[in-house]
Design goal:
Number of helices: 14
Strand content: under 5%
Strand order of the largest sheet: 1-2-3
Distance between the termini: 59 Å
CATH class of the largest domain: Mainly Alpha
Order of helices and strands: HHHHHHHEEEHHHHHHH
Radius of gyration: 21 Å
Number of domains: 2
Oligomer: single chain
């Protein structure tokens, strides 16, 4: 078992490159974990497998007794829940002791969502006259078309793509497999990339991965996040955007267009439909705005 500090580093790197969180947010999460680890040290607990739900609750109670505000306590719980969920996902722990602890509703935050116009603006940024531009354009189309996590995107294999039927096979959290449609725009971008760009990027190497970086190696989460930031800057969009924003937008745009929640849940790969329901709040906000704008008595 890795040390607590090593586990913290792994989790924070995951938040940076997978979730694209800001430096300020990462600093807050790091501070929360350091405070939790100090608590464990005082309790003579040095191994994460020795922690349980009562111990986490004792820590939260100690924070409250120290005068931590309800909002800060909620954020602290978000950090711990995310940390333990990550440890289970990475098979470091078999059981998540934090999942039984309720999160106050005041601590929830609706996901940031791009408008369809903003999505189109970003998707049109790559220079498709170059091999890398064709690859980048295909990656952007696929992550939005299928609502993928960035880790799912960069791990796509050639055999996972069926352009004739217009779908991709995805292996999500817990190695759960799902099949997601991608639509004609993504199909055309992938087809163009495979036939006119991928061979140039591969040169003389061979790879089973769909999206290739240098020397035939698969594109990394860090690499995709870096190119996305460049396109966001070029597009002149000031809104905070991460790779995960495309997944949020995928779900919200489908619901706004009339898709049922169960279908969106399947495409996102959510085990629990309650996880998907957060997007209905975003969709309702959109419908309310449309009613106010267009209804005679809105």
């Amino acid at each position: 078992m890795s040390s607590l500090d090593d586990l913290s580093d792994k989790y924070l790197n995951f938040l940076i490159f997978e979730k694209g969180l800001s430096k300020k947010t990462i600093a807050s999460y790091s501070s929360d974990l350091a405070r939790f680890f100090e608590f464990l040290k005082n309790k003579s607990v040095s191994n994460i497998v020795d922690t349980d739900t009562p111990l986490i609750l004792k820590h939260l109670i100690s924070l409250r007794n120290e005068g931590l505000s309800p909002k800060s306590s909620a954020r602290h719980l978000v950090t711990l829940r995310g940390f333990y969920k990550f440890l289970v996902q990475e098979k470091i722990l078999e059981y998540d002791p934090a999942r039984l602890i309720d999160l106050p509703k005041s601590g929830l935050k609706l996901p940031d969502v791009l408008s369809p116009e903003e999505v189109n603006l970003i998707l049109n940024m790559p220079d498709t006259t170059t091999a890398r531009g064709k690859r980048n354009a295909a990656m952007l189309e696929v992550i939005y078309a299928a609502g993928l996590r960035v880790s799912e995107l960069v791990n796509l294999k050639m055999l996972d793509v069926n352009l004739e039927a217009c779908f991709v096979r995805v292996f999500g959290k817990g190695s759960r497999e799902r099949v997601v449609p991608i639509g004609l725009y993504a199909k055309e971008k992938i087809d163009d990339y495979i036939h006119h760009a991928r061979p140039l990027l591969l040169k003389n190497s061979i790879s089973r991965y769909l999206f290739i970086a240098r020397a035939g190696k698969p594109m990394t989460r860090q690499g995709f996040w870096k190119l996305l930031k460049q396109y966001i800057q070029q597009a002149g969009i000031k809104k905070k955007i991460t790779p995960h924003s495309f997944r949020h937008s995928f779900a919200s745009h489908l619901l706004e267009g009339g898709a049922d929640l169960r279908s969106v849940q399947i495409m996102l790969g959510h085990v629990d439909i309650a996880t998907t329901q957060i997007y209905t709040h975003v969709a309702r906000d959109h419908l309310k705005h449309m009613h106010e704008k267009f209804h005679p008595r809105g």
